[in-house]
Fold:
Amino acid sequence: MSTESEQSEPTITHRPEAQRFDTTIDGQTGYISYQERDNTLIYDHTIVPQSLGGRGVGSALVKHALDFAHEHNKKVIPQCSFVSAYIKKHPEYQDLL
Structure:
């Protein structure tokens, strides 16, 4: 029996006061944090608890954060290696660099 959290996209919340996007699944919270400098978002950490690993949570967080940057006409500096690798695999985000 699988849970709904394994079958659907996670609900991701933007928390500007904490400078991060996060999601909580099965009581565990994963997030991508950022720093904002002028018109640029510096994505510095993607943190996903080990218990949520392999479920696409990190990718969903990064996609959400990059879509946010697109929607708000921001540039992105991917200090986090996970974000950098995601952009390399998804050329539709190259224009954010």
